[in-house]
Amino acid sequence: MAPRANWKGFLRLSLVTCPVALYPATSESEKVSFNQLNRKTGHRIKYAKVDADTGEEVANEDIVKGYKVDTDTFIEVTKEELENVALESTRTIEIDEFVDRSEIDPRYLIRPYYLVPDGKVGHDAFAVVRETIREMNKVAIGRVVLTNREHIIALEPMDKGLMGTLLRYPYEVRSADEYFDDIQDVKVTKDMLDLAKHIVNQKAGHFEPDKFEDQYETALIDLINQKRAGKPITAKARPRGENVVDLMDALRKSIGGAEVAKNSKPGKKPRKVASGQKEMLMPIAGKKQAKEAAAKKPAAKPQRRSA
Fold first, then answer.
1. What H or E segment, with its residue span, contains residue 152?
2. What percent of the chain is helix, strand and coil (3-state, nearest 5)?
3. How far apart are CA 192 and CA 252, in angstroms?
4. How far apart, in whole angstroms, are the C-alpha atoms of residue 76 and residue 68?
5. For the purposes of burial, counting CB atoms within 10 Å of the CB of 62, is it exposed (0-12), middle (13-18) or buried (19 or more)?
């Protein structure tokens, strides 16, 4: 089942307009998640909204937003007042300008979305906008209102649709100067640079996300399965970083280690199976693995009834 659209409205380039829907391109729902429990009873923790002074629980209909002016002073703003802030981007993504992708600082990127035509009409106009951006090799910059806040959004073609990436405002990006000013100016010798380049060439590859494995997620599943099986949990040794005494020696050893790893590297890394699963009646496999297994499972054949 496809996720619900986060936003529906119109995409407009000058006089060309089409209805569109915005969908999240990423999801965290398949990660292992935990509930908070009462250690004494094992019951889940429930959070209640209470008045900070009286301690009494407050009903949702009595809760309003407030802007803090000073310690004891707030300016209340109602939902209706927020909705009356009539921004055009609440219902329309107006393309303001086109820029080169290389000009967008990565620090400004927030999260990606998929933008598709909404309904049967507007596909022609959507295709015109999409192919214009593709042919010009540009990124379209517009504005959209999500969760009562206006965001800058960068649109670029992706297959038959558009990918929209929310961008931060300048006031949300911290200057690097306060962090980088104390880094010492070091003269890197040609020998060191050549050795480091050799290591890079040995480890050169292609960006293939399918090869990525969330090792922490795998370890969590392993931990939970072991606890369900009643097995003792032993702490694993944590990796320790070591101070580099001789940088040239470390680079040479790295080259030797990379060559050994390259020669013994298998074609594709098999997916790890959490230990303890064979001994368990219903081991967990994580939400992602369970979802993939359900998709691959063939449909059950109908049973014939005897007359």
1. strand 149-158
2. 30, 25, 45
3. 9
4. 9
5. exposed
**Tens-digit pLDDT profile for residues 98-133:** 999 999 999 999 999 999 999 888 999 999 999 999
Half-sphere exposure of 23 (CA within 13 A, CB side): 14
Per-residue pLDDT tens digits for 233-286 = 888 777 676 665 677 787 787 787 666 666 665 554 444 444 433 333 456 666
**DSSP-derived pairing of the beta strands 161-167 and 149-158:** antiparallel
Coil, helix or strand at residue 12: strand
C-alpha radius of gyration, the chain, whole number? 27
Residue 275: partners with Cβ closer than 8 Å, 6 or more residues away: 222, 225, 226
CB atoms within 10 A of CB 164: 27
Token pair of 42, please?
């094992």
CA angle (26 as vertex; 24, 27 as ends), nearest 5: 100
The residue behind tokens 């990606």 is 112
Cα atoms in the 13 Å half-sphere on the side-chain side of 89: 17
Rounded to 5 degrees, φ, ψ at 11 are -105, 130
Question: Which residues contact residue 106 at a Cβ distance below 8 angstroms, ignoring those fewer than 6 apart?
Answer: none
Write down the pTM of the prediction: 0.73
Whole-angstrom distance, CA of residue 190 vs CA of residue 188: 7
